[in-house]
Amino acid sequence: MFSSKLPAVASRAFTSSSAVKAKVAVLGAAGGIGQPLSLLCKLSPYVTELSCYDVVGTPGVAADISHVPTASKTQGSLPDPEAGAWPTGSEGGLKAALTGASVVVIPAGVPRKPGMTRDDLFNTNASIVQTLVEGCAEHCPDAVLAIISNPVNSTVPIAAEVLKAKGVFDPKKVCGVTTLDVCRANTFMGEHMGVDPSSLSVPVIGGHAGITILPLLSQTGASMTDEEREALTVRIQFGGDEVVQAKAGAGSATLSMAYAGYVFTENVLKALAGEKDIVMPAYVKSSITSAEYFASPCRFGVNGVEEVLGYGELNEYEQGWFDKMLPELEGQIQKGKDFAQK
């Protein structure tokens, strides 16, 4: 079962060994998600080279992170190859950031503010993702893409359409990161059950926005009233709003998203290195529902997503949410495809 625990940082943060040789590129590395995500990647024994890319600030971010005593090398690039890079005198630009990458994590984009939905970010973030994925198609077409930029329900289809147009689309290697939904489900259910949330693995399916997020609480075996089930479901679905409101205009979920993005990235690296039984949720091209893209448990292997798994039985309550969620998700998928194809 997938766990949202982060064993690498807890037990191996300051070791000097490296399990595999893998370059991870973080696009949007100077942002609120990108900086802590890059730091966590620097701590991973599965990362040999960490490449930080953003439109501003990345040489400084890379220089700062490079002082953390782990075996991985750190490089920071700006879009203009002549604008400076870290280490000083090294080549910059998107090509340098991406060439040789095994995994590309994309948290780039603008954050939500109070009153905004993920879909309100569409025009700005859609263009950013389109441009960055065009770079991936040219410079690292075989990399696994881990897309965090919202709205994920639309940006993953945008990425796929860009790669199709370039002739390099591989559905095994284009993933939307929905790990944070599982982290929230585990945390909130742990509070409800009075247990350590790291011992839980609550299935969450669908998409990554509002009612398209469907936690399958019936599969946990926990007892709850109808009112408790409703409250937990809605809190998981709109957990991001909780953070946006609490930050009062200063941003959205950045630290928890960085954690979740790192958990996803390290598990992908483990699978690419040949470790077995790596199963975790991801928003991917799927045929298990009528939606072309859908988040469900996936088995990862040396080629990326080896198998898209089913999600088991739904109870009557969950089926009601599922029936409401699917047309909403399909509309957001089509919106992304229309943007990329225009």
UniProtKB/TrEMBL annotation:
Belongs to the LDH/MDH superfamily. MDH type 1 family. SUPFAM superfamilies: LDH C-terminal domain-like, NAD(P)-binding Rossmann-fold domains. GO terms for cellular component: cytoplasm. It catalyses: (S)-malate + NAD(+) = oxaloacetate + NADH + H(+). PANTHER family: MALATE AND LACTATE DEHYDROGENASE (PTHR11540), MALATE DEHYDROGENASE, MITOCHONDRIAL (PTHR11540:SF16). GO terms for molecular function: L-malate dehydrogenase (NAD+) activity. InterPro entries: L-lactate/malate_DH, Lactate/malate_DH_C, Lactate/malate_DH_N, Lactate_DH/Glyco_Ohase_4_C, Malate_DH_AS, Malate_DH_type1, NAD(P)-bd_dom_sf. Keywords: NAD, Oxidoreductase, Tricarboxylic acid cycle. Its EC number is 1.1.1.37. One of its GO terms (biological process) is tricarboxylic acid cycle. It comes from Triparma verrucosa. This is Malate dehydrogenase. Residues 23-176 form the Lactate/malate dehydrogenase N-terminal domain. Homodimer. Residues 178-339 form the Lactate/malate dehydrogenase C-terminal domain. The active site is at residue 208. PROSITE patterns: MDH (PS00068). Substrate binds at residues 112, 118, 150, 184. NAD(+) binds at residues 28-34, 54, 125, 148-150, 257. CDD domains: MDH_glyoxysomal_mitochondrial (cd01337).
